[in-house]
Structure of OmpA family protein:
Amino acid sequence: MTEADDGELAVEAPVWTVFGDLMAGLVGAFVLVLIGVLFVQMDLVASLQQEVEKRRVEEQRRMALEKALAIPLASGRVTLDNGRIGISGSVLFAVNSDDLRPEGRQILRSLVHPLRVYLGERREMLMVSGFTDDKPLREGNHRFADNLELSAQRALTVTRALIEEGMPSSQVFAAAFGPEQPVASNASEQGRALNRRVEMAPVPRASPAPAPATAAK
């Protein structure tokens, strides 16, 4: 071997070393990227599974509520939409009144037993919500300051009627929304009639607050 050959080997050896280091770095970077992609995919799969399970539970809950209320729903005077039980305000009350009609009390009576069973099996509560249209109250009506107060009193009236018909007071509470959250346009009488309503919806019962830690003696 000549001196020239020795010189070429001396020059080429470091090039292959650098190339090897570069390839090792690229492989390491690729492995890190691959691991990151795998973790992202695992998170996506877990999120998808949680969403599927959530939808399954919601569908089971809807079907159970629909089954429990089969008889009242068949009468056509009660509706069930996305877990909310609706009763037209005209069935329950006269316009601008919170006096419960006899027909309305009869409907509420038919709901008590199936709702008690349903709520008891799931440790849930029943929220009774009152809604009105956006039309101001008639002049001369001195009982209610505005639609919000009217919706609150109607929700309370329905809540008390449910309790009187056998619903445990610990399982039901009232809420008022007035003209907020309309389900139809208030531009027509038909739409306003739809917005004057009472809805009932099962909601999760609040978890009890943890007991305060006792001081060490």
User: Anything to note?
Assistant: Residues 72 and 151 are 23 Å apart (CA to CA). Helices lie at 3-68, 70-74, 89-92, 102-122, 147-164, 189-195. The first strand starts at residue 79 and ends at 81. The mean pLDDT is 82.
